[in-house]
Amino acid sequence: MTIDKIQTQNTLAGALGIELTELTPDRVVATMPVHPPTHQPFGYLYGGASVALAETVASVGTWNLIDQATQACFGLEINANHIRSKRDGIVTATATPLHKGRTTMVWDIKITDEADKLICVSRCTVAIVPQSS
């Protein structure tokens, strides 16, 4: 699957400005702007926006590896440690698979800033289920 086939328009990813930049079986990369739509009320990057970015790359990575005609995938569990605050600029999420199973995949996600400083580290488990009609 290629990145241009993934539609983010009219989704949370689109609303947050998330852009996928790399998609391979072993790595997913996406960026997100840090600006008022991704801020918490005090002007800093919202932890929830970082979690949405992390789950996006994990879900896209899983989706890329399943049979999209017969299977679907959904975030099952996610955790995040917010390491550093950020007020503006761009953050980049890089996801790599820790486990590629038949019914679940587990992804390690690191979110960094333009200087490659760690902003957030996350782990996301994605469930793989039969696609419903």
UniProtKB/TrEMBL annotation:
Family from the record: Belongs to the thioesterase PaaI family.
InterPro entries: HotDog_dom_sf, PAAI_dom, Thioestr_dom
GO molecular function, one term: 1,4-dihydroxy-2-naphthoyl-CoA thioesterase activity
Entry keyword Secreted: no
Domain of life per record: Bacteria
Protein name: Esterase
This protein's UniProt keywords: Hydrolase
SUPFAM superfamilies according to UniProt: Thioesterase/thiol ester dehydrase-isomerase
GO cellular component: cytosol
Cell inner membrane keyword on record: no
Pfam families cross-referenced by the UniProt entry: 4HBT
Domain Thioesterase: 42-120
Residues that span the membrane, as ranges: none
CDD domains: PaaI_thioesterase
